[in-house]
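Q: Could you predict the 3D structure of Aquaporin-like protein?
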Amino acid sequence: MAALQEKPQPPDEEATALQDHSTGSSPNANITKMDLAAFDGTFAPLVRPRAVRLTPWYRSKDYFVGQWTDLSVWKSAAVEFVATTCLVFLSGQITATLEGYGTPQVGGYIGISNIVLVSTFIYATAPASGGHINPMITYSAVLTGLCSVPRGLLYMAGQTLGGALAGGILLGVWGPERATSFQGGGCWYDPSQASPGQIYLNEVFASFVLLFLSFGVGLDPRQAAIFGPRMGPLLVGASLGLVTFATSGIIPGYAGAQMNPARCFAFGIARRDMASRERIG
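A: Sure. Here are the predicted structure tokens for Aquaporin-like protein:
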């Protein structure tokens, strides 16, 4: 296991209060220990480990195999499963509602709704799981040393299964005919308007922009010192809304960058089309 050394920390009333709650040392004897997802890749900065690794993460055996038997990690993965199911379900319903109303500027409304949707879900899940709810976020956190491999694999499995469940629920709610007319809720493009290469390039670079912003405003350990512990989720949601809106009207028949593999997997299930070249994800 990698050696750890405590960071010198300035007094912080909020962090001290949180630590008192999590260790059960609060003056209120009725407060029990809270089960928090404390790892470097969480969107809740006050529960991140207050120690630095003396050994790089890529040389740490514990980073790759050390948490498979940790029950708290499995619980956090279950939270990611439930949260991803709920988020993808609501995302699909928002798209269907906007199309049902015949809204002409769908992209703008989806961009605004993504700010509220993603921010709310991160706030709701960050203490219990870190608030990733997106395999792309988890995968990038693993590659940058912020999330251990066992936690990352369990999270991505939970997110993928959650997306699959949400896709099945949406298909059941809409019925096959409506699910097809809604294109499963998104993650689709018209091949007569754009080539696969164009869509792929937009998806890759838009995803890079989202990751750059998400790390800068949410996952960077220095973020909390600048924006405070509560602004990160809101800024991540704003980043997603911005990128969604910016790419939503560039090509007819293309809803813009999707940036969530679990969501696209769900919508492919909802429209019963997992092999078409027009599908994104």
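Q: Anything worth pointing out?
A: Residues 149-181 form the longest helix (33 residues).
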